[in-house]
Each structure stands twice: as C-alpha cells, then as structure tokens.
Amino acid sequence: MTMQNPTMKAMVATAYGSPKVFQLQTVPMPRVKAGTLLIKVEVSSATRAETMMRTGKPYFGRLFTGLRKPKNAIPGTGFAGTVTAVGAGVNDFKPGDRVFGESATNFKTNAEYLSISQDAVVMHMPDALSFADAAPLSDGAITSINFLKEVGKIKAGQAVLINGASGSLGTSAVQLAKYYGAKVTAVCSTRNVGLVRSLGADEVIDYTKTDFSTHTAAYDLIFDTVGKTSYPQVKAALKPEGVYLSPVLSFPLLAWSLYTALFSAKKAVFAATGLRKPAELRTMFTHLLEIIAAGKHKTIIDRQFPLEKLAEAHTYIDAGHKKGNLIITHN
Ligand SMILES: NC(=O)c1ccc[n+]([C@@H]2O[C@H](COP(=O)([O-])OP(=O)(O)OC[C@H]3O[C@@H](n4cnc5c(N)ncnc54)[C@H](OP(=O)(O)O)[C@@H]3O)[C@@H](O)[C@H]2O)c1
C-alpha cells in the first residue's frame, strides 16, 4: 500500500499580474526537517509590499523575487499560528506553542501550513496578544522601528513628521514616535484625522488642505511612509541636520541618498527592512513586544478576508485607501 503525501490549501501565483493571478490550490504540505518548525497558520498578512511582489513592479525588485515569474509561488510574509511539529535539533519551540513572525524573503504564509527555520524570524507570542494583532506586526510596526529607531536614530524631544499616518506603517509610526518621546505631526486626509489623533499625534495635518512641505526648517525627521513626496520637495521643511526617510524604493531616492551621504548635512535615506539579518529583526521584535506590553502600541485592523479571498484583499490594497492593516484568516 502506498502512503499518500499530506496536502494543504494554499494561495498560489505562478505569474506576475493583477489579483487574478491568485488561485486556491491543494499543494504538498511542507515536510518537517531538522532545525525547522511546522506551523499551522491561523492569520497571515496582505500588505502593500506584497502587492508590489505580486505585480513584480518596480522591475528591479524582480532581482529578489524572480525575473520572469515569482520564485516562490505562495505569497505572504507575516504570520501567526500554532506549532504542530518540530524537527531534530529544535529545542526552543514545541508543538502547541503560539508563534508569530515574518517569512521575509521566503514568503509562503498565505497557506494552511508554514515551514520555517528556528533561526528565522519566529517569536513566541505573549498570551495577551491575539493572532489577528500579531500577524501584521512584521509590516508596519517592525518597518517603523527600523526606520525611526535604527536608521533615523530618533530622540526624545525631536519634531517628527509622519506622512501617510493612516496606513500600515503610518499607524504604527505615529504610536512608536510618541513612545520614543518625539513631538509628532501626522499627515493624513480628512476622513482619517480622528483615527490618527486617537493614536496620540500631537498635531494632525490634513493633506487635502495643507501642504506640510511649506513649513520651513520644522522637522528633525520626516518619515514619508507612503512615498508620496520626494526629497527635493520636502528638503526645506527639514531642520539643518534633518533626515528624510522613505521606505518606497525609487531611482531618484537612491540617487539622493548617495548625494546627501556625501555632500549634505540633511540626508535622504532608504532601507529595506526585510533584508536585515534575522537576528537583528528578532531583536526588533523583542523590543516591539516590550512596547506592546507597556500598552504603547496597538495593531490597527481595517478589514479581514478569508484565505480564499486573498485576491479581494489585494484589490482593496491596490485602491490605496487602506487604514492600518488587513488580515487574512485561515479557518
Ligand atoms: N522598505 C521597507 O522596509 C518597507 C517595508 C514594508 C513596506 N514598505 C513600503 O511602505 C509603503 C507603505 O506601506 P503601507 O502598507 O503603510 O501603505 P498603505 O497602508 O497601503 O497606505 C495607505 C494609506 O495611505 C494614505 N495616503 C494615500 N495618499 C496619501 C497622500 N498623498 N498623503 C498622505 N497619505 C496618503 C491613505 O489615506 P487616504 O485614503 O485617506 O488618502 C491610506 O490610509 C509601501 O510602498 C510598501 O511597499 C517598505
């Protein structure tokens, strides 16, 4: 008698393109290998960055995600779930543990099960944290810690402006900048002013009425979480040694980063959070868990979609008006 290999449901994309590329398929379940954990994913992510990986644009991103088609057919980076099995040599995790984290460059979290190395970005979940609140943390919260604390070296008392304050990165960045003791100006549209104020912003600028770049020498850090401005546009709004941070990669931004690194007291900076070493990302997660335990960060969830409706989640993100995070539920 031949044993059937176990299977699972997963969302699969075998080409770059619109949300229609996603198909729910039955695929082989990952095997438990030495040093890895098998996780039953309860909640996974659907993020703006994942929509860019779906389209394969900008094209230079394909150097990492696959030239002609996605290298990893199963999308998704953030996850939260329960360990169901561990391979030889895994001592810090056991079946039944609640875990969360980021499958940064391997993706595959939009599936029933995920296999991940114990040395990757996988963390124990505190009892007080729900799967829904944990799964999106790798996106907005960790990216904002990377930009504000690690790259921007934020200090208490600084004037910090967060553009795109109602998005995934923005809703975390406002809370984190407040936690670090900054005076926070948040930029969003009229309909999100209440949300952004509730996150603790000291001042809110409605971008449909006021252009913040007309404020001269006002900010130590400008974190444009949605990449809607350019360094030359907002340079005058930076203090003499101010830093412009943007997580949205473009050739002009890279050119300005290089130029300002060499020739200017004001700086423009891009960073790719997911490409940091797993140990560095785990340190950021530990720091974030302390902030959450202190009641200083909450996950803002706009909508949830079941796994089979991942295409609808991506269509919603593509429209550009997401508030905070989307979550993908797997039950
Ligand atoms: N480099 C990295 O390490 C890294 C890591 C993760 C993500 N990212 C990138 O970060 C970017 C932001 O992601 P996200 O998930 O935070 O975005 P998002 O949630 O999709 O952003 C949507 C929000 O942006 C607001 N918005 C739209 N136009 C705006 C404007 N002109 N000014 C101010 N706000 C505006 C919208 O509010 P309204 O509807 O009210 O306009 C909406 O609430 C993405 O490009 C992603 O790829 C980079």
List the helices and strands and how they pair.
Layout: E1 7-12, E2 23-28, E3 36-46, H1 48-55, H2 62-65, E4 78-86, E5 98-102, E6 113-117, E7 121-124, H3 131-134, H4 140-151, E8 159-163, H5 168-179, E9 183-188, H6 193-198, E10 203-206, E11 219-224, H7 231-234, E12 238-245, H8 251-263, E13 267-269, H9 278-293, E14 301-306, H10 310-318, E15 325-329
Parallel strand pairs: 8-9, 8-11, 9-10, 11-12, 12-13, 14-15
Antiparallel strand pairs: 1-2, 3-4, 3-6, 3-15, 4-5, 5-7
Helix pairs in contact: 4-5, 4-9
Residues 47-49, 52, 139-140, 143, 163-164, 166-170, 187-189, 191-192, 207, 225-228, 247-248, 271-274, 317, 320-323 line the site of NADP nicotinamide-adenine-dinucleotide phosphate.
Question: Could you characterize the architecture of this molecule?
Answer:
The structure is a single chain. By secondary structure, this protein is α/β, with parallel strands linked by helices. The protein has two domains: 7-138 and 300-329, Medium-chain alcohol dehydrogenases, catalytic domain (Quinone Oxidoreductase, Chain A, domain 1, Alpha-Beta Complex), CATH 3.90.180.10; 140-274, NAD(P)-binding Rossmann-like Domain (Rossmann fold, 3-Layer(aba) Sandwich), CATH 3.40.50.720. Helices cover 27% and strands 27% of the residues. The protein is built from ten helices and 15 strands. Strands 3, 4, 5, 6, 7, 14 and 15 form a seven-stranded mixed sheet that branches. It has a six-stranded parallel sheet with strand order 10-9-8-11-12-13. A two-stranded antiparallel sheet has the order 1-2. Strand 9, helix 6 (193-198) and strand 10 (203-206) form a beta-alpha-beta unit. The model has no long low-confidence stretch (mean pLDDT 97). The protein binds NADP nicotinamide-adenine-dinucleotide phosphate (NAP). Residues 47-49, 52, 139-140, 143, 163-164, 166-170, 187-189, 191-192, 207, 225-228, 247-248, 271-274, 317, 320-323 line the site of NADP nicotinamide-adenine-dinucleotide phosphate. NADP nicotinamide-adenine-dinucleotide phosphate (NAP) binds next to helix 1, helix 4, helix 5 and strand 9.
